[in-house]
Design brief:
Layout lengths: L1 E3 L1 H7 L2 H16 L3 E2 L4 E5 L4 E10 L5 E9 L3 H4 L5 E8 L6 E6 H20 L6 E5 L3 H13 L4 E5 L6 H12 L2 E5 L2 H7 L2 E4 L18 E4 L12 H6 E5 L2 H7 L1 H9 L7 E4 H5 L12 E5 L4 H18 L3 E2 L2
Parallel strand pairs: 1-7, 8-9, 8-11, 9-10, 11-12, 12-15, 13-14, 13-15
Antiparallel strand pairs: 1-16, 2-4, 3-4, 4-5, 5-6, 6-7
Length: 326
């Protein structure tokens, strides 16, 4: 059995490889080749923490069996200088149940979530999208930005300032890594109005911008809110958007960005166009013209961990990386 740490994960699998793995995973999910119970979430009565348990089995085309145990403590970066998301992913042999690998959950989560955003941008964003606005400079924001740049010709990214001490280093690191102009700004209105793509990767409980600022043809990827009473997007944004989700069932349980407008009576669940796996499989059109505002709302699925974790494990064996535990 291998242990594969966070630094190794980033060395082993590129964002492009992760996007391909998640794209295939979404297709398998739509084709009902995935057995994935709703994740179990337990609130921890300290520092607004949560403990999540996420099992999954994929039958085809490449079998995988995995479980992720994850903690989300949103105040960690500022209070303890620790990541908000920490955990482990365990891969098992799907034929006999033997443990194959333990992977760092924080790094894998950032990679697979970024990859999901990359899949959505590839299918839903305008192909000429060049300007992006990013809310959130944590690990999730980093991989989301990298994935968007992998599938779109992004030349400039506005990063919204929020008194986060990581912002300056994020700007320097990502502009060097991606070769694009990154602008730190507090002018949310101008950034949103100028952008072709907007990515929200925060723990916000309230909307980050107003839907009236969106220009026609914008694509939005929203991945931060993970509770029914959390939201990064306002009701106007939801009403104006052609909405796609990773899992409708999961979003009906967890996605405050959608649950709150439904409770308000502003939309019904029938307003959801469909799941991204349907678009990937070619059975549902994604963006149909350059004027549509498209939205991908993701709450995160265990299948993403399984397919990306499997790809990391297979390459680790080829590259002779990881620590053997027995």
């Amino acid at each position: 059995m291998l242990f594969i740490g966070g630094q190794e994960i980033s060395q082993i699998l590129t964002i492009t490889e992760a996007i391909k793995a998640v794209e295939d995973g979404f297709s398998s999910f739509y084709k009902k080749q995935v057995f994935m119970p709703q994740r179990m979430a337990m609130q921890v009565p300290r520092n607004d923490g949560n403990l999540l348990l996420m099992p999954v089995f994929i039958s085809n085309p490449a079998p995988a069996l995995a479980v992720k145990t994850l903690t989300v403590f949103p105040y960690n970066p500022r209070t303890f200088d620790l990541p908000a998301i920490q955990g482990l992913v365990i891969l098992f042999d799907p034929e006999n149940g033997s443990p194959l690998a333990i992977l760092d959950g924080a790094s894998l989560t950032a990679l697979r979530t970024g990859a999901a955003g990359g899949v959505a941008a590839e299918y839903l964003a305008r192909r000429d999208s060049r300007t992006l606005t990013l809310f959130g400079v944590g690990a999730q924001g980093e991989t989301q930005l990298e994935a968007a740049c992998a599938v779109l010709p992004i030349k400039k990214a506005f990063v919204i300032q929020n008194n986060d001490p990581r912002e300056q280093k994020f700007q320097e690191r990502m502009s060097s890594k991606l070769g694009i102009e990154i602008i730190l700004t507090g002018d949310v209105v101008s950034a949103v109005r100028e952008s072709d793509v907007i990515i929200t990767a925060t723990n916000s409980r309230t909307p980050l911008f107003r839907g009236e600022w969106l220009k026609p043809g914008t694509h939005i990827t929203a991945i931060g809110s993970y509770k029914p009473d959390f939201r990064e997007l306002d009701t106007e944004t939801i009403k104006k958007s052609k909405i796609f989700v990773d899992s409708l069932e999961a979003c009906m349980e967890e996605a405050g960005d959608l649950i709150i407008p439904v409770r308000e009576g502003a939309i019904t669940w029938g307003a959801i166009s469909g799941e991204i796996g349907q678009v990937v499989a070619g059975d549902l059109p994604g963006r149909q013209n350059d004027q549509e505002i498209t939205l991908f709302k993701s709450v995160g699925l265990a299948l993403q961990d399984a397919v990306v974790g499997r790809a990391v494990y297979q390459k680790a064996l080829e590259m002779n990386l990881g620590i053997r535990l027995g």
